[in-house]
Amino acid sequence: MKNDPNYLSCKNKECKKYQDGKCVISTCSGSIQFHVINIRSDIEFVFFSGGFLKPCLVGRSTPLSFANPKRPLYGHLSSIDSTGASMRLTWVSGDKEPQQIQYANGKSVTSTVTTFSQADMCSSALPSPAKDFGWHDPGYIHSALMTGLNPSSPFSYKYGRDYVDSGSVYITPDSGGECGVPYETYFPMPTSAKDKPWYSIEQGSVHFTVISTEHDWSENSEQYAWMQKDMASVNRQKTPWLIFMGHRPMYSSHQGLLSSGNKFNEAVEPLLFQNKVDLALFGHVHNYERTCSVFQQKCKAMPTKDKKGMDTYDGRNYSAPVQVVIGMAGFTLDNFSSNVESWSLKRISEFGYLRAHATRKDLSLEVSSYSLVFYSRSLT
């Protein structure tokens, strides 16, 4: 039991009741450390027994306050276009007044401020933690755009998805009532309008087409027309690699609500094949899984091993996209079905994240926790 990281060792053991010369009730003390995130409101620690099914309160701490609850925190940098000359910084504060970023030796910019409320959350047939219980004030989300940056040069700075009633094409309570509101508020993307979270961006030799599987992707939808036009317009001389990204995967060995369903594949997968998408990346399922070059459930090409043992595809002879589920960065890991399809080449249910390296000639991927480059497609 002491090998269990959640085990709290007993110290200063003391007997409180004896019976027939034997101790039948004893107490002890122990200690455990927590890393606490500044959530701008007082917190308490509660100790209970009986587990989540039959919790019994044993004790609780006095309320603890943060020294500076309005402090600006959690800065997040994101690129807004393909020029490399602008970066967006988003952060959270307890102060609703606009704040400033000072950057690049003398430049400054003032933030725009937004937030969301409990009324912006949504409910389903089941009570949701975001709206019906467990609501926590998000504070104020600040965002500002730093412009005039020099691409590939360092700079320093300091700083002081669908909405309610829009609905998802998947009717499930898995957002916990958030409806994509916190995501789109905390992490603004270069989209054309609010509640239209599809966009494309180019970085180096890669064109990224990013869509929302939660919004209408049927053949008569606005999003379908956009992705069709976007992928068809890619200049493969400028960006030879085309990567398609979405949330719910087309291919997954974890069946049920976590997959996107056959209708999504029937509508969208032909676009990937027609426009010679090299790689499709998805999340939602909390594990890692990689396919062969697959189209309509059939392997069109299999990788070969290079001298280092890496799975490699020859990009000169395009066959079909390789599809990868990369949802293993957090939350509870998902297991795989016992029935393995022929298109599934690699399945790992461990925490990790994906890193990619692209040149004009090669695209290689590496899963961090395994230190293994598993996919490389060469144009030479």
From TrEMBL:
Domain Calcineurin-like phosphoesterase: 210-288
Reactions this protein catalyses: a phosphate monoester + H2O = an alcohol + phosphate
Location in or out of the cell: Secreted
InterPro entries in the cross-refs: Calcineurin-like_PHP, Fn3_PAP, Metallo-depent_PP-like, MPP_PAP, PAPs_C, PAPs_N, Purple_acid_Pase-like_N
Keywords on record: Glycoprotein, Hydrolase, Secreted, Signal, Zinc
Keyword Transcription belongs to the record: no
Main location: secreted
CDD domains, per database record: MPP_PAPs (cd00839)
GO MF terms held by the record: acid phosphatase activity; metal ion binding
Enzyme nomenclature, EC number: 3.1.3.2
Boundaries of every Purple acid phosphatase C-terminal domain copy: 320-366
Top-level enzyme category: hydrolase
Keyword flag Signal: yes
Alphabetical list of PANTHER family matching this protein: PURPLE ACID PHOSPHATASE, PURPLE ACID PHOSPHATASE-RELATED
Name assigned to this protein: Purple acid phosphatase
Species per Swiss-Prot/TrEMBL record: Phaseolus angularis (Azuki bean)
UniProt lineage: Eukaryota, Viridiplantae, Streptophyta, Embryophyta, Tracheophyta
